[in-house]
Amino acid sequence: MTAPTTEPAAPTPAAAHEPPVIELRDLRRTFPGEPPVEALRGVDLTVHRGDYVSVVGPSGSGKSTLLHILGLLDRPTAGDYVLDGVPTRELSEQDRSRLRGGRIGFVFQSFHLLPHRSVLDNVLLATLYSGVPRATRRTRALAALERVGMSHRLDFLP
């Protein structure tokens, strides 16, 4: 992934006055081997709160590598990644995990739900180790399911 294929969208008016949620500067990821594989070369990206972003490209263009780095599942070989004002380069694995758990959500192409648990219980499982009291987690899970139009399926089994 060397350059975006389209012009970046202008930030929303409110976001123009806020620091970016995601900022990548000269991000690079090289995988060792003979020859080494440059999956990402000099990627610059700024995402403000409220922006809509799509990562599109042919197979092998670095999409998955970029998403793994954005999700703090991998580290860049070079460059800077600032997530919600936090520089990620020097973070320990524990700090990366904490930041990932508090700031990043993953959407998978196929869902991985426990078939013997309700929709609500499956959502609550994602917050089990968050340190947040169960009642608060339940309130948040109910609100999240409402936001995505799933509140009518709270007790359904997948």
Short note summarizing the structure:
Pfam families: ABC_tran. Helices cover 25% and strands 18% of the residues.
Percent of sequence in beta strands: 15-25%
CATH homologous superfamily heading of the largest domain: P-loop containing nucleotide triphosphate hydrolases
Structural class: alpha+beta
Number of helices: 4
Briefly note the CATH topology name of the largest domain: Rossmann fold
Write down the secondary-structure element order.
Answer: EEHEEHHH
Number of E-state strands:
4
Which of globular, elongated, flat, extended, rod-shaped describes the shape?
Answer: globular
Low confidence ranges: none
Average predicted confidence as pLDDT: 88
Q: Which CATH top level class of the largest domain fits? A: Alpha Beta
What is the CATH architecture assignment of the largest domain?
3-Layer(aba) Sandwich
The count of domains is 2
Radius of gyration, whole Å: 18 Å
Main beta sheet: 4 strands, antiparallel
In order across it, which strands form the biggest sheet?
Answer: 2-1-3-4
Give the termini distance in whole angstroms: 37 Å
